[in-house]
Amino acid sequence: MTLATLRQGESATLQRLELPEAFAHRLMQLGFIPGVRVEAAHQAPGGDPRVYRVDGSEIALRQETARRLYCTPV
To answer: What is the pTM of this model?
Structure first.
């Protein structure tokens, strides 16, 4: 499962990031580290981007990116 499949209010534990190294590194700096709990929050009217809560912050990700962040449900 990926972050893109989470519905609003659902949480999951991040397992891995399948992104280019520089992009993955930047997301890890923002708190998207394997093992962290991520919650799907609100989204734009068209559905993209969506806001995710991670480590006390809210970060917007495009669905294209969220589809490459793999997780397991909590």
So the answer is: 0.91
Q: CATH number of the domain that 35 lies in?
A: 2.30.30.90
Report the number of distinct structural domains present in the chain.
1
**Euclidean distance between CA atoms 28 and 13, whole angstroms:** 14
**Residue-number span of the structural domain to which 21 is assigned:** 3-73
Contact 31, 45 (CB under 8 A): no
Res 47 pLDDT > 80: no
The angle at the Cα of 51, spanning 56 to 26, to the nearest 5 degrees, equals 70
The answer for residues whose C-beta is within 8 angstroms of residue 8's C-beta and 6 or more apart is: 40, 41, 42, 43
What pLDDT is recorded for position 74?
Answer: 87
